[in-house]
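Protein: Recombinase family protein
Species: Salmonella enterica
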Amino acid sequence: MLWCIIENSLDRHSFFGNGLSTEGTMGKMVIQILAAVAEAEREHILERTNDGRLVAMVAGVKFGRKPHQKSAMIREFISQSATVKLIIEKTGISRATYFRIKNSPAI
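Structure follows.
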């Protein structure tokens, strides 16, 4: 992908005005080194993130969206076959929230 960018949009680019350029074998080598460093850093970030996620799971941290405060009331209305309009008016929730709660598994 990096070479596509260089070939399509950058004919020649000078870095920091100190004579380094993307042109020639040295320029290509500099680009490859920078790409390798960026890839290694990205992998390092992913490792740290996954390690932190595992520590949090072991500590019992719950992931995901918190249950809606009125979900029990809404499920009760749904079980009584109340209309969507009535439930929305009684609870003050949006249609999107209603359908999200209705379609999600009960907790």
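Remarks: The chain has a mean pLDDT of 83.
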